[in-house]
Amino acid sequence: MTSEQLGDLVPLAGTLGIRVDDAAPQAVVLALDHRRELSTAGGVLHGGALMSLADTAGAVCAFLNLPDGAAGTTTVESKTNLLAAVREGTVTATATPLKAGRTLIVVETETRDAGGRLVAKTTQTQAVLGPR
Q1: DSSP 8-state symbol, 103
Q2: Mean pLDDT score of the chain, rounded to an integer?
Q3: Residue 116 near residue 52 (C-beta atoms within 8 A)
Q4: Rounded to an integer, what distance in angstroms lies between the CA atom of residue 45 and that of residue 38?
């Protein structure tokens, strides 16, 4: 999957400037650059931007792990621990599947700053959507 394909699939990803670094069923890596317009007071990258990055990485990971015949996936639960402030640079979210089943896919995502420091940890459950 390319960044352009991601932007077509998830328009918010394009709006935020999320890029695809790698996308395979075993791991999805997305990146987001710190920008003033994505920040809170004091120049800290907004938690919502970090959570959107993690949710998008998890969704792509779930999509790449869909069982045969599934039409898609949607987030039904997501929990994020925000662990450190990001004031500059690029953050990357690496999503890996914990369980890929017929009806639910559980994904864990680690978000790290440019120095490799863990800044957020997300666990999410994606529902598998059947054919329409």
Answers
A1: S
A2: 95
A3: no
A4: 6
Q: Which helix (H) or strand (E) holds 59?
A: helix 47-64
Write down the residue that tokens 């998890």 correspond to. 58
- Residue 124 to residues 4, 45, 69, Cα–Cα distance (Å): 24, 21, 22
CA 44 from chain center: how many Å?
Answer: 19
CA distance 92 to 114: 8
- In total, how many domains does the chain have? 1
The CATH number linked to 88 is: 3.10.129.10
This prediction has a pTM of 0.94
Which residues on neighbouring strands pair with residue 23, listed in sequence order?
A: 28
Residue 32 in 3-state DSSP?
strand
Tell the residue number behind the tokens 């699939």, with chain if given: 9
